[in-house]
Amino acid sequence: MLNFWASWCGPCKDEFPLLEQALATHEADGLAIVGVLFKDEPATATAFVASQGADWPTVTDPDGAAATTWKVVAPPQTYFIDRTGVVRARQIGEVRDQAELERLLATILK
Questions:
Q1: Burial category of 97 from C-beta neighbours within 10 Å (exposed 0-12, middle 13-18, buried 19 and up)
Q2: Distance of alpha carbon 99 from alpha carbon 39, whole angstroms
Q3: Using DSSP, how many helices (H) and how many strands (E) does the chain show?
């Protein structure tokens, strides 16, 4: 999963526990999450990640090139990429519940 997020984004804050739960459940199945910081300060984001206990890597996007490449307008925006590198699903906005996230994960965890 490639997840664009920001510490100032309310829906991102709501979504983080779902992502943590999904990673704990599916890491043995090969699930990995990479966060991309969207228009946020690294120090603020680092503090947020620590407070959430999230342990997946997050990269910065200081010039917005990654967000532009992936056509991100606002966070959260998540791409579900299979083992061969094919984008199988895209979620614009917050994943609202575990059932929705499991449906999206099913597109890549085969």
A1: exposed
A2: 29
A3: 4, 5
What beta strand segments (E) does 32-100 contain?
34-37, 58-59, 77-81, 87-92
Sequence-distant (≥ 6) Cβ neighbours of residue 51 within 8 angstroms: none
Using DSSP, state whether 30 is helix, strand or coil.
coil
CATH of the domain at 88: 3.40.30.10
Assigned domain for 51 exists: yes
Please compute the mean of the pLDDT values over residues 26-46 and round it to a whole number: 95
pTM: 0.94
- Confidence bin at 53 (pLDDT 50/70/90): confident
Residue 110 has pLDDT above 90, yes or no: no
Is residue 110 included in any domain, yes or no? no
18 within a domain of the structure (yes/no): yes
- 10-26 and 98-105 helices, crossing angle to 10°: 60
Range of the domain at 45: 2-105
pLDDT of residue 106 exceeding 90, the answer is yes
